[in-house]
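Technical note accompanying the year-one report. For the benefit of new consortium partners, we illustrate the data format agreed upon in the data management plan: each record pairs a sequence with a structure-token string. No post-processing was applied to the example shown here.
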Amino acid sequence: MTSMHAGYGTGGNYGNQGPNNPPPVGPGFAFRRRQERLDWRKLGAVDVDRISRELDYRALQDNVMNVTFCNIDQEIDPRTLDPNFVKLFKLAQLTIEYLLHSQQYLTDTILRMETQLRKVGDHRHNAINILDHREDE
């Protein structure tokens, strides 16, 4: 997955995350405008029951952008639906976008931590080599 947003801040202690204490949003995050057109053929080919039954996360990945960033108001006449359904759909879009951001933030954090861990391992290895050479003298 490619990054949709840049600049998430500099990590921290987020061990107490939960519904009432979400991960940091960080600088650079903003909800995108919904301007994409919905690919109705792609949507029509989705078998939601099969995805659920088979845990087909790839099918979800294939459709996440299509659903998350479509402008539902351009696709349907919102007056023909219960206003709470349209609100539910838009809330789900914002939730998905935030989860995509959080996923990218955590991926970036893991990569940064792995880099730091490799550097510490290299420093440790160098220190051991120096100590071994001193013992040999």
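Partners are asked to follow this layout when depositing records. The mean pLDDT is 82.
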